[in-house]
Amino acid sequence: MSLRIGQRLLSTFVLVNLFLPATVVAQHPGFSVGPVTAMPGTRASGFLEVPAQGADQGTRIPLTVVHGAKAGPVLGIVAGTHGYEYAPIVAMQRFPAKVDPKELAGTIIIVHVANLPSFLGRTIYYSPVDGKNLNRVYPGKANGTLSERIADAITREVIDKSDYVVDLHCGDGNEALRPYSYWMTSGTPTVNAQSKEMTLAFGLDHIVIDNERSSDPAKSMYTANTAITRGKPAITTETGGMGQADAESVGLVEAGVFSLLRHFKMLPGEPKRAEHPIWIDRNEVLRAAATGTFHAQVKPGLTIAQGSILGVLTDFFGRTIQEVRAPFSGVILYVVATPPVSQGEPVAMVGHLKMPEEQ
Question: pTM value?
Answer without folding.
Answer: 0.90
